């Protein structure tokens, strides 16, 4: 019985590896096929943590296949288990998936609200993994508000991200190279915002 259980675990892991590999290759149908195969193994159905993790994978697969309601369904399942385990990082990451699905459903304001809820969940955390998730949340929010051309809000959000990244570097919660990479992306976003919010020379002249 024990060897059969181990065999099922290996089968689950193989399905997950294949699903992720196909996702990287942008073969979303195959990625979903193997994620579903993993989902239906006994080792997933009888293990809440494995179930939660595979639900996250399924949610991302469905987003890529434009099946947003199913994406939200599986992300919500992951959130429910994460909450019961006190796993705030997985809960917040799953909320990113829900936000992306809401965006695709043209629920733009709702998508930002979902991200704000996730940010509030992790605000003030001292856990390094949760801080990294918080950076991902802020960057996701930044992309969303820039798409909506809320440039001043984007700049303010960017400043929060910058302060958090600098603090993480000082405390050793993130390597300097990763901080620099995130700051590079951040400053690229902020440059675009400043271009759109700065008055043109003609506007400055006419206001004199």
Distance between the termini: 84 Å
What integer is the average pLDDT? 89
The count of strands amounts to 0
Strand content: under 5%
Helix content: over 70%
Number of helices in the DSSP assignment: 11
Which class of secondary structure composition applies to the elements? mainly alpha
Q: Specify the biggest β-sheet.
A: none
**What series of H and E elements makes up the topology?**
HHHHHHHHHHH
Q: What form results from the Cα inertia axes? A: globular
Low-confidence stretches: 200-208
Task: Output the radius of gyration.
Answer: 20 Å
Tell me what you see in this structure.
The structure is a single chain. Helix 5 (68-85) runs antiparallel to helix 6 (88-104), helix 6 packs antiparallel against helix 7 and helix 7 packs antiparallel against helix 8. With 208 residues, the chain is mostly helical. It has eleven helices and no strands.
Quick gist of this model?
With 208 residues, this protein is mostly helical. 84% of the residues lie in helices and 0% in strands.
Main traits of this protein?
208 residues; mainly alpha; 84% helix; disordered C terminus
List the helices and strands and how they pair.
Blueprint: H1 2-24, H2 28-39, H3 42-45, H4 48-64, H5 68-85, H6 88-104, H7 108-122, H8 128-147, H9 151-171, H10 176-197, H11 201-206
Helix pairs in contact: 1-2, 2-4, 4-5, 4-6, 5-6, 6-7, 6-8, 7-8, 8-9, 9-10
């Amino acid at each position: 019985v024990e060897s059969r259980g181990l065999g099922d675990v290996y089968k689950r892991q193989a399905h997950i590896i294949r699903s992720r590999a196909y996702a990287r290759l942008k073969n979303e149908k195959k990625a979903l096929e193997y994620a579903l195969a993993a989902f239906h193994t006994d080792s997933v159905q009888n293990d809440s943590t494995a179930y939660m993790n595979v639900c996250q994978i399924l949610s991302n697969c469905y987003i890529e296949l434009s099946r947003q309601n199913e994406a939200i369904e599986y992300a919500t399942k992951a959130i429910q288990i994460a909450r019961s385990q006190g796993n705030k990082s997985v809960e917040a990451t799953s909320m990113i998936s829900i936000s992306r699905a809401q965006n695709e459903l043209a629920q733009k304001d709702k998508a930002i609200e979902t991200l704000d809820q996730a940010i509030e969940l992790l605000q003030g955390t001292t856990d390094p993994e949760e801080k990294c998730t918080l950076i991902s949340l802020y960057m996701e929010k930044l992309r969303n508000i820039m798409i909506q051309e809320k440039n001043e809000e984007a700049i303010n959000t960017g400043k929060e991200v910058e302060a958090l990244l600098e603090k993480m570097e000082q405390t050793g919660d993130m390597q300097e190279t990763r901080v620099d990479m995130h700051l590079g992306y951040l400053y690229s976003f902020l440059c675009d915002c400043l271009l759109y919010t700065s008055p043109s020379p003609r506007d400055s002249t006419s206001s004199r």
